[in-house]
């Protein structure tokens, strides 16, 4: 969140919503790492609706997977 929208109030406020996003997100797909680095073996993509300050947003939750361990990559 902070690496993509540190100046955007809605992005910063979404940090508080992370637990809800994780619980309510819908799995879309998993893709193998195609970037040529070895940070993650694959990424799992999820989406979830979230309301921040009365505005509706669609949040993309990306979970990095490395050696079978799940790491939160970005939201």
Features:
four-stranded antiparallel sheet, 75 residues, alpha+beta
Short note summarizing the structure:
The chain is of the alpha+beta class.
Helicity, as a percent range: 10-25%
Radius of gyration: 13 Å
Average predicted local confidence, pLDDT: 80
Structural class: alpha+beta
User: Which percent range describes the beta-strand content?
Assistant: over 45%
The strands making up the biggest β-sheet line up spatially as 1-2-3-4
Can you put this structure into words, describing what you see?
There is one protein chain. It contains 3 helices and 4 strands. It has 75 residues and is α+β, with helices and mostly antiparallel strands. Strands 1-2-3-4 form a 4-stranded antiparallel sheet, with helices on one face.
SSE topology:
Layout: H1 2-5, H2 9-13, H3 18-24, E1 26-32, E2 42-52, E3 55-66, E4 69-74
Antiparallel strand pairs: 1-2, 2-3, 3-4
